Amino acid sequence: MSDPLHKKIIISDKSVCLKSTLFSGQSFRWNEYPYNPDRFLGMIGDRLVIMRQVSPSSIEIQCSSNLIYGMNITEFIVRYLTLDIDDNSVFPDHFSLRYPDLWKLVNGYRSVRVMRQDPFEIMVTFMCAQGIGMHLIRRQVEMIAERYGEELVFETENGPLRLYGFPTPSSLASADVNDLALCTNNNRIRAANIISMARSFESGAMAIACVRSGDCSLDTLRDSLCVHSGIGMKIADCIALFGLGRFDAFPIDTHVKQYLWEWFGIEAAQRSLTEKNYRYLQDEARSILGAEFTGYAGHILFHCWRKEVRKMKAF
User: Fold this and answer.
1) Residues 16-50: pLDDT tens digits?
2) Which residues constitute the domain of residue 35?
3) In the predicted structure, residue 210 carries a pLDDT above the cut 90
4) Neighbours of 194 (CB within 10 A)
5) In a domain, 165, yes or no
6) At a CB cut-off of 8 Å and minimum separation 6, what does 292 contact?
């Protein structure tokens, strides 16, 4: 049983919508706190974290330790929620002038933060995410944690909570493909790809690529990720954006293609997503959204599209 939770209030000069950030399709291990739906419960490494929105620019954090990955709670959460990035710099200055109607729509979503998450967890998560809905992704990732992660019990004001840390690379590297497939909707190919990637991460090859990710071009980073079976261009870009802090990475899926056509009139977005067309659409997106935060802005647009146009409620 752990010690009582440590509580902090983080006040920022940046806006943040906690619920939209946590449930915008970039992370799948956050849930509503069972005793209070205004709080959100998650595991970061082996730490229990409970977050609550206090105001548009402040959040309450409860954590099972004063440190997360060796950083104090406040320092880590500011980095995790990218509260060090000015939301006014995410979209280029000309965007609101070129697309005034869209700007009115998307302006309410600028408090969605693109999080800096653990790269190994993001790799496994998005390798699970191919071609399925968010509810099933969430379930698969949780099953993997329950089967291969460390079981932990935390003391809270509402009583003990039993949760699971995310599996280490070694635990998945040694997994049996048939057992892991039980967590991937009986998809043995997907399970085998995750095991192979975990072995590469454990051996250091994939881990080194992640460590050096900020020192190379996006194309070089993507190429180093795509050599692994089960990681294509879109998943590599998700890993880069959500796991490696490469906010210039711009993942393209069906929803992104749809808004590139409907909102920006890019005709190529109506064609199939070949590698050549994928690269072309990324270049077009950079010309609209700028080079530095293409993927960051793209994720805000992705969430806005799903909520405002597609009227989706499951996240």
Assistant:
1) 999 999 999 999 999 999 888 899 999 999 999 99
2) 6-84
3) no
4) 28
5) yes
6) 247, 248
Kindly state whether residue 63 falls inside one of the protein's structural domains. yes
Give 291-307 pLDDT, tens digit per residue: 999 999 999 999 999 99
Q: What is the mean pLDDT of the chain?
A: 94
Q: What are the DSSP E strand ranges found in 104-248?
A: 151-156, 159-164
Contact status, residue 247 vs residue 292, Cβ threshold 8 Å: yes
Q: What is the C-alpha separation between 134 and 284, in angstroms, rounded?
A: 27
- Which helix (H) or strand (E) segment is 196 a member of? helix 188-203
d(CA 209, CA 215): 10
Band (pLDDT 50/70/90 cuts) for residue 145 is very high
| Angle at 264 (CA atoms; ends 92, 303), nearest 5 degrees | 70
Q: Could you tell me if residue 285 is inside a domain?
A: yes
Per DSSP, which regions of the chain are E strands?
6-11, 31-33, 36-44, 47-55, 58-63, 67-68, 71-72, 151-156, 159-164
- Are residue 153 and residue 224 in the same domain, yes or no? yes
Specify the residue for token string 């019990």: 153
